[in-house]
Amino acid sequence: MDPVLIIERLGDQLRGMRQQRGMTLIELAERAGITRQKLAEMEKGKPTVSMFFYAKVIAAMSSEVKIVPARKPTFEELREVFK
Question: 25: domain CATH number?
Answer without folding.
Answer: 1.10.260.40
